[in-house]
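Progress against Task 2.4 (sequence-to-structure conversion) is shown through the following example record, which the project officer requested during the mid-term review.
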Amino acid sequence: MSDPTSPPDAPATIRAIVAGHSDFADGLVSAVHAITGRGDVYRTISARNLSGAELEETLRRAIDETGAQVVFTDLQAGSCTMAARRVSRDRDDVLFVCGANLPMLLDFALAADTTPLEAARHAIERGRAAITSVGGGDAGAPGAPGGPGGRS
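Structure tokens generated for the chain above:
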């Protein structure tokens, strides 16, 4: 339900930053927007053509400009995560989450009634739970047919 005191076209508050290689962040946020209409809770950053120092500066500036308390990145040892780790040394007020996926970002976007940190912690669990496998002779693997949590 919308807030009756806000104009109907008021922009959403940026609650998190999504950073990744190439079009990773834009692609995920585009999908979130197509599914929920709430992609505007994110600011995206692409590592394309940025050095490590430039990426770190871009991330710092985005956090300062938006007040975002959460940063989602793609790869655990990727350039965005490395930049985020450097930023985290002096920004303990920001939660950095690596390994972002679509279910995680959908969950976060829909958690408008919680703080960004609470929403991110819940979204992390949702993102983990969404990872599964089917087929390929992996019966007995978590999430696989016949395996724990899988279809029978």
